[in-house]
Batch of 2 targets.
Target 1
Amino acid sequence: MRNTLGFLTILALAAAPLAAEGGSDIKGKYIFKKTCKTCHAAGASAKEVTPLSKTQAQWKAYFAAAKHNGGKEPLGKLLKPEQVKDVQAFLVNHASDSPQPETCGG
Amino acid sequence: MSALLPFPSRQLRQALTGLIVCSLLPLMAQQTAPAGHGSYTKLRAERGQSATADHSKFKVLQGPFKDGDGSAVTRACLSCHTKAAAQVMATKHWNWRPSDKKLEGYGKSTHLVNNFCISTIGGNQEACARCHAGYGMKDSGFDYTKAENVDCLVCHDTTGDYEKIKGGYPNPAVPLADIAQKVGRPGNQNCGVCHFFGGGADATKHGDLDDTILKAPRAVDVHLSKQGAGMACTDCHLSQAHEIAGPGYIEAADRREQPRFPGEPMSRMSCAACHTASPHASFVLNRHYRKVACQTCHIPAFARGGLASNLSWTWSTAGKLKEGRPYEERDAQGLETYNTIHGDMVWAKDVKPEYVWYDGHMAFTRLTDTISPARPVVLNPLQGSYADPEAKIWPFKRHDGDQPFDPVLNRFIAPWTAGPKGSGAYWGDYDWDRAIRLGMEKAGLPWSGKYDFVKTQMWWPITHMVAPKTQALACTECHSRQGRLDRVAGFYLPGRDRGAGVDFLGWSAVLLTFCAVAVHGAFRFLSSRS
Amino acid sequence: MSRIVLYPLFNRIWHWTQALLILLLALTGFEVRGTFRLFGYLRAVNLHHTFAVALVVLILFAIFWHVTTGEWRQYIPTRAFLREMVAFYLTGIFKNAPHPVRKERTAKLNPLQRLAYLGFKVLIIPVQVSTGALYFFYPNLSASGWPPSSLWFIAVLHVLGAFGLLAFLVGHVYLTTTGHRPLSNLKAMLVGYEEVHEEAAASASEEPSA
């Protein structure tokens, strides 16, 4: 999905409450794009996911449960623990009910 | 007849030859296929194998580099490429302004105004620096002389993993050592990370440059498509000492008609440099070269890759909130029609260009220039007319919009747009008064304290995304009434122009003759029966 | 009845080739003008050039023929029988009056025809050929300083000439039917000779020379 002027939006709202348990929102966006989107994109092997797919509370619950791909493929296997935190920070900060809802470019 | 004498003999000879050729071969005069040339993809692969250095073997590039510390990588590069930073620091990509002192103020790091994000210098440098080939541009205090600020990787990354954030720094998640060990010549992706996203997002600004080029089928771009010539941007935009050929502000687009020769200065940026000035089998088509840019017929529409380009940006309607929150609206195609941070917007794909006489020169408007707001202000008036021997009819994307201006000083304004809530930046607080006051303070420019909006227009030349010749315009797209050149004035165009009353006069004469013979014939018929 | 040869072979070939070329030039020319679509624009332009060159070549041959055979004298205008010819077309023809001028080999054209064809040869054709050439070479002329407006004049003259030719064609075709039988003139132009009545042949000796 096209993200019109998306990065400007991010920059515009750069106050970006860095957040969720010490992860880096900016790093998280990069990792999400490079790793998660290889499967979770339109036309790819798994369901398309953007930060808007869930609310902040839902994202937090998702990471707490840690059941990626029904538990068969834990995130810890794909990413380093601090990278998981970065991705969580990005998704939570830009969730559908966040102050800066955000899809992820491309 | 004396006017016949100063004919350049070569031109006359060509015309006579043409007359003979096109009189003998009328049925073959449609274009014939040109001799194919090898795929540039293959050429490039071969050239790649000829590299003599494997950067992964250099100790200085092993890292580890601190997250986001691009300058550390630059220092490592400069330990071998000792003169590279000095070269880069002399370029437009670094300075964002012309080196010529006479052109003071023309450049995005100075007083230039554009129809999209308006200006960098009202405090927006940090956001804009995502596309600056350097590290640490946060405000007007950026140090343009510091070699380690040069960003080597944005142009030389071959992995596609490099990404810049505000201030021009690498994203801290970027694997710097890995990228540094795989550097190479710039590819289309390197140019594209900035030039496809001009105006803030993919396809926004140019109309003929967007991300779809990287995977374009031949039908979208015969040159850059892998199924086409497989060329790279740098095959035409040649570089010399890191300065990449391209029309900068004020400097004319290259219209040189002949190929360059070895050792000549850079630039292969005219079609004729490869295709010659007479590329068609048809003499009649070749004759168009003098007055019609190749792009006019060979780029039937812009934004052809599937992404819509921005056609209008109305700043005056920005700032509306819904339930106290910024919002956006999209049309049925998913194109943004309104966004609180931008105002009303118009997007479209496959757009017919507008056609204008253009000799490669355009003027620009600076924050320090006086404008007359009574009429829409053209930010980059184009130069050229039929009578101008350098001018040709060129395709353009016209971009409409409006911009804040100072109605007392009659100058444009540089508002601070990109900043967080509470900072006073427009996209934080949606308060023009504050955003303008802070922006003009940061820009060091006077402001009367009043603002209003004035309609503006900007013209973007269309030159990329050249279509296959089968999609080139048919003659009657222009040689007809209500055709594409309907509003291009100053000359007689066969098929479009008639001469007032000529048809009436002519057909009347024919009709009168017909009536006369009909009456005469009728009388003869009747009299022969009586 | 006897046969009188009016149109030698070259005369007929020239006439019909010229007629065909002018028709084709009109078709392609009006397509370029945008009056209709037929061949396709680029093809129409190229064909127009081809037919124009062919016509010029034909005209050169025809000039050579006229000069070497002395046929050019047939077009020298005369006032003799001019009034009678006008009167014939205005009244006589409706009363089945005899044609006032008898055709013969050295004077195949009546005074009105002489005027019309002379005008065709020294006015319309030269205007069309010269404006056509200027039109074709206009890019070269423009490069050597001719103003943009000059093409407007060239084009307008060329088109007016074309309309003139069309009007001429209408009148010309109609007048072929005014022989002693509607198709006898046409037949003469095809086969070269005409059947002439004896008494008409006898009175011809009284015709004054031009």
Note: DSSP finds five helices and no strands in chain A.
Target 2
Amino acid sequence: MGAMTAVTLNVNGERFSRELDNRTTLLDLLREHAHLSGVKKGCDHGQCGACTVLLDGRRVNSCLLLAVAMDGTEITTIEGLSDGTTLHPLQRAFVDHDAFQCGFCTPGQICSAVGAIAEARAGWPSAVTAHDAPPGPVELTVPEVRERMSGNLCRCGAYVNIVSAVREVAR
Amino acid sequence: MKEFRYERPTDADSAVALLTDAPGAAYLGGGTNLVDLMKLGVAAPDLLVDVSRLPFEEVEETDGGGLRVGAAVRNSTLAARRMVRERYPIVSEALLSGASAQLRNAATVGGNLLQRTRCLYFQDVGKPCNKRRPGSGCPAREGVHRDLAILGASEHCVATHPSDLAVALAALDAMVHLVSAAGPRSLPLTELHRLPGDEPHRDTVLRHGELITAVELPPPVPEARSAYRKARDRASYAFALASVAAVLQVRGGMVHHVRIAFGALAARPWRARTAEEALLGQPATEEAFGEAVDRELAAARPLRDNGYKVPLARRLAVSVLTDLAAPDAGGQR
């Protein structure tokens, strides 16, 4: 057992407190300690986006964050998006648009899309946003969604339907 | 991953003191590169000093009309700031051309500048690498080097620096503010990173324990226009094969002020000073831009599989400068 640190954070609205090996990533905290297996370990190197969660409302790769550095933060995983048995609008849209096949990337895709929609509403530009775009929300066109969701890979190739699902909710 | 202790000091002096006394310690910013390197065994600090919550999170105008960006500001926050988009658009463009939204939400400005090369041999502890293990050799020269340096490399190392932001900052004459046990100091961004020479393990001129606290941009050059352009294997979420940041001010058809920096060609953002000097006072024409860039790239020493970077960098630079010189070009800024 390596050097340990006590960590307290808020996960999906509930306080989570644990003494953890410093080497624990946020991803491993969520899956192995908080038993939230919706968040997925894909590449474990920040390249695939399967581990995407919301950190204080911003989408991040949980595999590259050390749990000890997350003390005092608020984390939302796919399990925290639905309201009881009522699906989050993005979960509903992914079902309606057939936006997945095997489903392994889906929790990360949906958390990422929640972040992407919030960023666009806040007026954050992307690499394809016009330089002279007026202040205010950015419309999520197809090129905008493709660019903003490029950090989430889908080996099944469900991209076309993922774009449709995200755009429906963004409207 | 090797065991490490973790500290999160609340002020810079404490952070510097913790690192100064611990030769095996490292600062932790957003961790998007360092944590990955720790998983790979490339980095094995015995103490991580978390500086991501130090009070360096402001983006503020300086008294002189420039901009001071705290080292802990996240890449996505900086890219979205209206003041940055309006006054220093190439900073925003460079940031948004790099990584993914998730990574930009975590990565800090200071950490972006200090990220390590993505050379495959550096990231594979099963292979020799002079940057990772001095004296072990450089298989990249004869091996896989399509992405690697054509300028300023040495027989010991052909790594490139992967940052997009640093290229824009080089073109903007940015300063980097530092603090160490010896006190504060400031450096031009272009002097932060080193060429490999015979010490490729030293990426920068920073001393052990020295901490980046802020990056400062001088006031924008009046009436100058600027652009960042990046060539890569995918349309999004890929490192540059070559990139260029340029700032151009034309008066009466002549080049009055010009700054050109290349990315992904060398171990540091490559300020094209030879081309800049050649252009000053010359007609702002495609022909003049091409001749000046050729002079700069005459120093290129490509390897077997990266010679394509010479014409690629040339086309990027000439097209960007030509667009900036056109009075009614789209996207004037």
Note: The mean pLDDT of chain B is 97.
